[in-house]
């Protein structure tokens, strides 16, 4: 069987960057072997590490032990309940001893001290990670990732972004390691491409400025449209590119960032199901260029995306294929809402809402500008005369990813359902306009 | 028709009052500034803020008080724990 190395970088190459030291390939692998030796036997490992380096070491340790790494995305009650039900044999690895989990838990505190752990060959067809999205039933749905597909995507990204050995690019990211985008670009990429991922703080603009100053050039800043808006005051010299993903970037914001930092503003298109599959330079136009080896085919209603080494998966977005092999995004299917890089099914959220005691009818409403305005959140409209807004909110908090909690719960006498029982968005918006005036 | 949160004036210091106003206006919250409990939790099940709010709030704080918030593993949880802790941190670091 075809097998691919865990790490494919020169000996002594830097893979991760700590504030005052770089972690070499040998040191990273030594940490991974040390952690692997302490892991209990289990088929699945829930990686709950918050620090990028501990997260990466935990992933590598699971690879060495032949365990499948679960990436939960959020730790809401329904997510933990679904994991406990579907993966009863799971062990959890945390780097924060205060984090409580329903699983046997191992504490990971890798320090990146100099060492010389050997690499390993991992079968390409082995499922090494399972990533979750919230499904239309309100229950998380799993997406299996094979090692071959993950490595092929890292190699494709390395080719697209010019990360060949010669100079090692520092990657400073504002996105967490356990989200598909952050996992690919900041955890997987350094294992197979000439880059080193910053593992210190990089959340607030002040952190990002300090991180860029502390890392060797050339540098790539990895962020999201909402975070990019907050980074306009950051002085960043020696940037070779800034990469954004999770939502389409406003071209004006992209042009502004290019002028400010003197570097191309690039976007990655991807989804949890298929990972990163295309990129574009925002100021050059709206068309996306698929990664090398990625094919897109229309099959009935959906577009199937197939990366090298991966099985084809239907995309949640509507695309228009262009003649030159590029594509245009036509928008998300109506059921999907995306916020802070996480995605939820509105049908699933509505099912949770209408399943609450005393809620006779209800739905979540997504503001039109949710991709562009950082203060935009969902709101909920309910027919629930006996329930207060705060008690509904408290019930929802136990049942869904808190990021999608409604910031307002609005009571109405009835929802404007048509003869088919459907709720036209226009009718809902008119109702909301009346409510806000009233 | 809407259920407004019950407004109750709580004991905020002048600095906390100003910060509460900034939090409500910058995050466009549907709560009266003087209803934010000084010792209540801002994130999670308190005021219900999330990490996107934290970034927006950091921007508003740097514009208003003239200093940059930084992540710090040990202390960050404590700084953002409540209106009072955040206000104390700001008063100790503000440049305007």
Summarize the structure.
Chain A is built from 11 helices and 27 strands. Chain A has 438 residues and is α/β, with parallel strands linked by helices. Chain B is an all-alpha fold.
Ordered list of secondary-structure elements with their pairings:
The complex is a heterodimer of chains A (438) and B (96).
Chain A lengths: L2 E3 L8 E5 L2 E4 H14 L5 E4 L4 H14 L2 E4 L5 H10 L4 E4 L10 E3 L13 E3 L3 E8 L5 E7 H14 L8 E5 L6 H13 L2 E4 L6 H10 L4 E5 L1 H6 L8 E6 L6 H11 L3 E7 L3 E7 L7 E2 L4 E5 L2 E5 L6 E2 L2 E5 L5 E6 L3 E4 L2 E4 H9 L6 E5 L13 E5 L5 H9 L10 E4 L13 H13 L1
Parallel strand pairs in A: 2-12, 4-5, 4-6, 5-9, 6-7, 11-12, 11-13, 13-14, 14-15, 26-27
Antiparallel strand pairs in A: 1-8, 2-3, 9-10, 15-16, 16-17, 18-19, 19-20, 21-22, 23-24, 25-26
Helix pairs in contact in A: 1-2, 4-5
Chain B lengths: L13 H14 L23 H15 L7 H7 L3 H11 L3
Helix pairs in contact in B: 1-2, 1-4
């Amino acid at each position: 069987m075809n097998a691919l190395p865990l790490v494919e970088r020169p000996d002594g190459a830097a893979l991760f960057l700590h504030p005052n030291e770089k972690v070499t390939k040998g040191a990273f692998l030594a940490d991974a072997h040390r952690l692997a030796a302490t892991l209990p036997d289990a088929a699945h490992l829930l990686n709950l590490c918050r620090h990028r380096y501990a997260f990466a070491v935990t992933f590598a340790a699971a690879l060495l032990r032949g365990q499948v790494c679960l990436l939960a995305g959020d730790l809401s009650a329904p997510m933990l309940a679904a994991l406990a039900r579907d993966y009863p044999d799971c062990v959890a690895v945390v780097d924060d001893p205060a984090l409580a989990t329903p699983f046997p838990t191992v504490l990971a505190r890798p320090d990146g001290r100099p060492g010389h752990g050997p690499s390993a060959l991992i079968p390409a067809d082995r499922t090494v990670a399972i990533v979750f999205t919230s499904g239309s039933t309100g229950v998380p749905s799993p997406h299996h990732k094979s090692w071959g597909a993950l490595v092929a995507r890292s190699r494709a990204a390395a080719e697209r972004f010019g990360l060949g050995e010669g100079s090692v690019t520092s990657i400073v990211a504002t996105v967490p390691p356990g989200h598909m985008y952050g996992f690919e670009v900041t955890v997987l990429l350094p294992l197979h491409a000439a880059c080193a991922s910053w593992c210190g703080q990089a959340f607030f603009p002040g952190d990002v400025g300090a991180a860029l100053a502390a890392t060797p050039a050339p540098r790539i800043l990895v962020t999201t449209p909402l975070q990019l808006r907050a980074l306009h005051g950051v002085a960043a010299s020696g940037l070779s590119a800034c990469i954004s993903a999770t939502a389409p970037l406003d071209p004006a914001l992209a042009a502004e960032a290019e002028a400010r930092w003197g570097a191309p503003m690039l976007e990655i298109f991807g989804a949890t199901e298929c990972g990163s599959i295309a990129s574009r330079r925002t100021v050059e136009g709206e068309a996306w260029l698929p990664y090398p080896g990625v094919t897109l085919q229309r099959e009935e209603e959906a577009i199937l995306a197939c990366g090298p080494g991966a099985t084809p998966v239907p995309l949640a977005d509507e695309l228009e294929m262009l003649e030159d092999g590029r594509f245009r995004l036509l928008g998300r299917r109506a059921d999907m809402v995306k916020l802070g890089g996480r995605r939820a099914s509105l049908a699933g959220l509505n099912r949770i809402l209408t399943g609450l005691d005393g809620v006779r009818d209800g739905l979540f409403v997504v503001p039109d500008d949710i991709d562009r305005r950082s203060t935009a959140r969902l709101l909920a409209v309910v027919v629930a005369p006996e329930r207060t807004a705060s008690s509904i909110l408290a019930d929802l908090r136990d049942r869904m990813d808190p990021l999608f909690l409604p910031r307002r719960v609005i009571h109405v006498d009835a929802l404007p359902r048509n003869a088919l029982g459907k709720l036209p968005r226009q009718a809902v918006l008119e109702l909301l306009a009346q409510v806000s005036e009233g | 028709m809407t259920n407004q949160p019950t407004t109750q004036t709580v004991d905020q210091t002048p600095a906390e009052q100003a910060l509460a106003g900034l939090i409500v206006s910058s995050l466009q919250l549907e709560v009266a500034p003087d209803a934010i409990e000084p010792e209540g939790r801002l994130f999670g099940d308190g005021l219900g803020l999330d990490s996107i709010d934290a970034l927006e709030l950091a921007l508003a704080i740097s514009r208003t008080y003239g200093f940059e918030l930084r992540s710090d593993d040990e202390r960050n949880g404590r700084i953002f724990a409540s209106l009072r802790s955040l206000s104390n941190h700001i008063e100790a670091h503000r440049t305007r």
